[in-house]
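User: Could you go from structure to sequence for me? I need the amino acid at each position, not a summary. Structure tokens:
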């Protein structure tokens, strides 16, 4: 449910986050990726790595304050997600810090990991209580096929950013892997990902699959039994199927 003000939606009940208020600080389909599984359905409008204020911090913070002041139920998370990649907002750090001055509700950020190679992005995220990053392929061909990144963004840059971030971050680290039938649903690909992440302090791994309409029509949906088999690869991490 969208709130009256478009930067805020919900709150929604989430199995993992509890009662979560969504914050959307990016215009619709502004992203560094154009994923084949994107549930925003249409192709990315602005495919970019350039960070900009997009929705300025003063507007975001005053809307959050207004909503929190009028909310009678207690929230479990203020969650940055929504229309595109939240780290593309260059004022993310100030927004997170600003929320901390008006609320003690834990802050969660979902990121596609593409900008983690930038120190200022890692620093902005360091103020969040929880970050869920996504990585769905370790093989370059699969990465380009699934995520269709902006020109100039390579898998090496993404992996280097994830590596630095996971080694520096002090909050709660979650990870998501989007698994698509006949594309990255192999034990080999999952084993490569496991090998890459095995030293990182990841509290939860979520295996997801594109069950809704997406940018690329006709994607095949992996069945739950197969997902459960792939989940075994990630032992002893805590893995759940979304
Ligand atoms: S990273 Fe998220 S918003 Fe961006 S294209 Fe992929 S699924 Fe869509």
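Assistant: Here is the amino acid at each position, in order:
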């Amino acid at each position: 449910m969208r709130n009256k003000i478009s930067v805020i939606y919900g709150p929604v009940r989430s199995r993992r986050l509890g009662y979560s208020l969504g914050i959307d600080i990016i215009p619709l389909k502004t992203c560094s990726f154009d994923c084949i599984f994107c549930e925003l359905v249409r192709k990315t409008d602005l495919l970019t790595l350039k960070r900009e204020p997009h929705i300025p911090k003063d507007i975001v913070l005053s809307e959050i304050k207004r909503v929190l002041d009028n909310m009678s139920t207690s929230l479990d998370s203020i969650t940055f997600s929504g229309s595109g990649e939240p780290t593309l907002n260059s004022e993310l750090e100030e927004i997170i810090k600003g929320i901390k001055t008006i609320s003690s509700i834990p802050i969660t950020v979902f990121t596609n990991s593409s900008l983690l190679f930038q120190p200022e992005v890692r620093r902005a995220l360091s103020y969040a209580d929880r970050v869920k990053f996504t990585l769905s392929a370790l093989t370059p061909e699969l990465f380009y096929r699934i995520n269709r990144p902006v020109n100039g963004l390579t898998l090496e840059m993404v992996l280097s950013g994830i590596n630095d971030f996971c080694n520096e971050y002090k909050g709660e680290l979650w990870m998501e892997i989007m698994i698509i039938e006949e594309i990255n649903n192999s034990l080999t690909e999952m084993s490569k990902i496991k090998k890459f992440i095995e030293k990182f302090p990841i509290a939860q791994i979520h295996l997801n699959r594109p069950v809704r309409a997406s940018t690329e029509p006709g994607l095949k949906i992996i069945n739950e039994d197969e997902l459960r088999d792939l989940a075994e690869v990630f032992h002893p991490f805590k893995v759940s199927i979304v």
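One structural detail worth keeping in mind: Residues 31, 33-35, 38, 40, 44, 84-85, 112 surround iron/sulfur cluster (CB under 6 Å).
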